[in-house]
Automatic annotation (TrEMBL):
Belongs to the NAD(P)-dependent epimerase/dehydratase family. It holds the Pfam family Epimerase. GO terms for biological process: L-threonine catabolic process. This is Nucleoside-diphosphate-sugar epimerase. It comes from Christiangramia echinicola.
Length: 319
């Protein structure tokens, strides 16, 4: 492969598994992990790592030059629930980091960028069911505003400067290897930990809060697929809708109860319920399926059995 890959925000929920996957595909020394903090042992041990702040442009340039980086995956961001508590900090991190990377591509230093967007780009005025690729977008969270603005700038840099930037609107990502980073869909991960430990869970979302979700392996596959697709197949240069499963806390609890029969769920919705209400319930991702062949593998049943097994194993190892 010509040039190495740099992952910024590699120690997070998605970054950790993405880094390991890319190292498996391209070779350990070809994929440089970076973050403002150290991460999981497997990530730290398997290849090069740099402490790097996504807002520190000179340091990003230094690392890019040091390793002859040609592709950047920018995973660092402040997520929806955390961002509501520190709006200006979230805005600065989410926007400044994106501009630094877009500008590196504009000046020809790097060739390709992956930047994740989110279902948070949608708002209360967006059609809630089967939300189309192109539709009304009036996000009401600072996170959603930053992602929507980011999408506009990605498309602008592609049209104006030919920057090869590729993006996906991730739904809520469910996984067990790394804990989630402060999003509104985190309940769908916590519930597995509590179900196994205590057979009960108190949900911070209401029982009928339907949200689009995806198991981590599908999210990683989509990320790898869109980055490997021939440039002409990536027709949307803002960000692609992407979907797999959609469920409510009540439906998930019932699925878990098939395995843990005495599992009980209570509901104490907090400020995150309001964020959830502003987002779609399900997503139309036909554009991704048609343009670059996206297909998901994990349905609710398979996700649930995989999570119960994975979380169970992790908790046993910790005990
Ligand atoms: N996880 C989801 O459900 C989800 C859904 C939609 C979109 N996304 C997007 O995917 C991306 C990755 O999400 P995630 O869930 O892995 O997030 P996360 O919070 O788990 O990880 C983010 C990582 O960025 C690092 N970071 C924070 N500030 C930094 C800085 N200034 N410089 C460098 N690193 C910094 C953190 O230490 C952390 O390791 C984000 O852009 C997020 O908005 C995630």
């Amino acid at each position: 492969m010509a040039g190495r890959i740099l992952i910024i925000g590699a120690c997070g929920q998605i970054g950790t598994e993405l880094t390991l996957k890319l190292r498996e595909i391209h070779g350990n020394d070809q994929v440089i992990a970076s973050d403002i903090r150290e991460g999981a042992e497997e990530l730290m041990q398997s290849g090069p790592f740099e402490i790097l702040n996504a807002t520190d442009e000179p340091h990003i340039k230094e690392v890019v030059q040091k390793y002859e980086v040609k592709q950047v995956y920018l995973m660092a961001a402040m997520l929806s629930a955390t961002a509501e508590k520190a709006p200006m900090k979230a805005w600065d991190l989410n926007m400044d980091s994106l501009f630094h990377i877009l500008n590196l591509a504009k000046e020809g230093t790097i060739d390709k960028i992956f930047w994740p967007s989110s279902i948070a780009v949608f708002g209360p005025s967006t059609p809630k069911d089967d939300t189309p690729q192109t539709t009304v977008m009036e996000p009401t969270t600072v996170y959603g505003i930053s992602k929507q603005t980011g999408e506009r700038w990605c498309e602008y840099y592609f049209n104006k400067f030919g920057v090869d930037v590729r993006s996906i609107r991730y739904p809520g990502i469910i996984s067990y290897k790394t804990l989630p980073g402060g999003g509104t869909t985190d309940y769908a991960i916590e519930i597995f930990h509590e179900a196994i430990k205590n057979s009960e869970y108190t949900s911070f979302l209401a029982e009928d809060a339907a949200l689009p979700m995806m198991y981590m392996d599908d999210a990683i596959k989509a990320t790898v697929d869109i980055m490997e697709a021939p440039a002409e197949k990536v027709k949307v240069r803002s960000s692609y809708n992407l979907s797999a499963i959609s469920f409510t806390p009540d439906v998930l609890a019932k699925e878990i109860r098939k395995h843990i029969t005495d599992f009980e769920i209570k509901y104490e919705p907090d400020f995150r319920q309001k964020i959830a209400e502003s987002w779609p319930s399900s997503i139309d991702d036909n554009a991704a399926r048609e343009d670059w062949g996206w297909e998901h593998e994990f349905d609710l049943e398979k996700m649930t059995t995989t999570m119960l097994e994975g979380v169970g194993k992790t908790l046993k190892e910790k005990a």
